[in-house]
Amino acid sequence: MESQSCGFDFTTAMRCLCTDMATRLPELRHVDLGRVAISICQTRTGGSHGTYASLTPMRFEAGAAEKKIRGQRFGVESVCNEAGSEFLYILSFYLPRFLNTPLEEKLSTVVHELWHISPEFNGDLRRHEGRCYAHGNSQRAYDAEMDRLTQRWLALDPPEHLYEFLIGSYDVLSAEHGGVAGTHWRSPKLMPR
Question: Residue 76 forms beta bridges with which residues?
Answer without folding.
Answer: 190
